[in-house]
Amino acid sequence: MSKEHGNLSINSQNIFPIIKKWMYSDHDIFYRELVSNACDAITKLKKLSMIGEYEAPDDIEYKVEIKLSAKDKTIKIIDNGIGMTKEEVDEYINQIAFSGAEAFLEKYKDKANDDQIIGHFGLGFYSAFMVADQVTIDTLSFKDGAESVHWSCDGGTEYDISEGTKTTPGTEITLYLNEDSYEFANEYKAKEVLDKYCSFMPVPIFVTNEDAGEQTEEIPEEEVTEKDTVLDTFIKDAVTEEVEKEDGTKETVEKVPAKKMAKIVKRPVAINDIHPLWTKHPNECSDEDYKEFYRKVFHDYKEPLFWIHLNMDYPFNLKGILYFPKINTEYESIEGTIKLYNNQVFVADNIKEVIPEFLLLLKGVIDCPDLPLNVSRSALQNDGFVKKISDYITKKVADKLSGMCKTDKENYEKYWDDINPFIKFGCLKDEKFAEKMNDYIIFKNLDGKYLTLKECLEENKEKHENTVFYVTDEVEQSQYINMFKNEGIDAVILTHNIDQPFITNMESKNENLKFKRIDADLSDSFKEETSKDELKDMTEKLSKTFKDALGKENLTVNVEKLNDSSISSMITLSEESRRMQDMMKMYGMAGMDPNMFGAEGQTLVLNANNDLVKYVAEHADGENTKIICEQLYDLAMLSHAPLSPEQMTGFIARSNKIMELLAK
Ligand code: ADP
Ligand code: MG
């Protein structure tokens, strides 16, 4: 072969600085590109050999080797795959890649630097120039009579191509690292990067540190195989121990017998798992397999609750495993990770253009070989195919959850506390998911039983059609809870932040459905029927007395004859007003005094059957009336919302004073 000097025909000056700047924000990605090319080359050769187009040597062991030398500042990536002829180097490396580069530049020259591009863009090989000043390729095609080729390029627009020295098919890429990238030849750094991108690539990958010299290990001689290089054999002495016999004399006993050992050149260990769990059929995987895979990939030692194995060939190819992690914190801090793969090559974490947003709360892996990765994220977003993938995943998750609710209710209930924020978030984010899950949302009632929406409505059907009462704080609202229990009315417990937006959403999806917090109004069940005028007088009197005592001109006072005479006072706040106030608090007014919105919509309910209330009604000017009014109001407030610091201080001081009065 004659030596050739060529020009990478591209009309711009030197494109490499531009590639470096624009292509990937993470320089370490060159490892992914070059190692995946090496794997591709092997996969291709294996296919050719399978269909009889290539006769592989019997003892061939397909593998990718990565040889590092921090001393020489080089990285070699070696495969025994398909290799390239001179013509192929010309076509795939000199030309094709550059047309890719041109298209790339055309498209991205005006874009901001942070518009991250996922995937290849036909530029994979050239990512080497992000970290190397000079790159060489030594390659020999598998084809009969092919000549070995040596290609070299120093990152300018010129390359040299000449006869190479390779004698077996495959390709060896050598990177002469640039000043900023020496770290990639460091064994630990390299392994860290490879672990990220190459953990599940389909061909065994071996890493050796060329500077470290020969590594050895000692194994029992009988375990030596033909492949091992034996450096030495020796006898490992028996392990003995002195023990005292019954008669007091000592005896030496053999604990471990002597053993023939061999010192061998350390056996290489592949850094990757070429058959990751998601590529297997669900029938072949045990629970322990799933748990182990979870631990390994997510470094989470808490066991996942359960998982979904996605396995689809038609109309597109998608495999993966989604885990529901155990959580005990509020939903804001749930942090999932969905790792996206393309034919076992890691692409990126949490690509929200492909994975529905709410699923990012889960942990999982998704491998979709059909994904068009050579486009930008913004293009992915508008891709109909991507939407289909995302819909499919959503549907599978809903199927799994509804199936579990139907056939494994016990576990479903057990997991509910952990998974409900996720499901509710999903319902808020995804119409279809909400529709599918509507009948499988369950609510814990006052007896700790789980009910579906239908069952909840059934419970209160007679007196409160279409209404579900709920509790947001079991301690604060205990007085109301007791009243409900006494009257045999049910309520459900909804203590999570997401519950408020969620029930609003559910109401909009289920006609006539109304959620009411347990203190929203006093239902007729709790009070005696009274004629219109019966309490009119008392109401007027009490209203004036309380307004004066509390200095609250706008206070609404309502007098009722409650069945339970031990109850003196309560606060009710209509559901609408409360939700409005909650919403205002949420939008930037968090942390403010919950009472700052005044008594808006609040009603002080006084029980005409209660002795203290009767006393106040009859003693508007009594010596202690003011103090009693204030105390009755605070007691009612306590079961409704937390008191402000000033209110609490006042309440405690007054309570002390009342006890003093008692003692006198
Ligand atoms: P892509 O992998 O997307 O095709 P690359 O720039 O990574 O783009 O590689 C360009 C082409 O160069 C590949 O399609 C392949 O034909 C060839 N190539 C790259 N690396 C190797 C290799 N290790 N062995 C054989 N061919 C290779
Ligand atoms: Mg490639």
UniProtKB/TrEMBL annotation:
SUPFAM superfamilies in UniProt: ATPase domain of HSP90 chaperone/DNA topoisomerase II/histidine kinase, HSP90 C-terminal domain, Ribosomal protein S5 domain 2-like
GO MF term (any one): ATP binding
Keywords: ATP-binding, Chaperone, Nucleotide-binding
Binding site for ATP: E33, N37, D79, M84, S99, G100, T171, R377
InterPro entries: HATPase_C_sf (IPR036890), HSP90_C (IPR037196), Hsp90_fam (IPR001404), Hsp90_N (IPR020575), Ribosomal_Su5_D2-typ_SF (IPR020568)
Protein family: Belongs to the heat shock protein 90 family.
NCBIfam families: PRK05218.1
Protein name per the record: Molecular chaperone HtpG
Organism from which the protein derives: Lachnospira eligens (strain ATCC 27750 / DSM 3376 / VPI C15-48 / C15-B4)
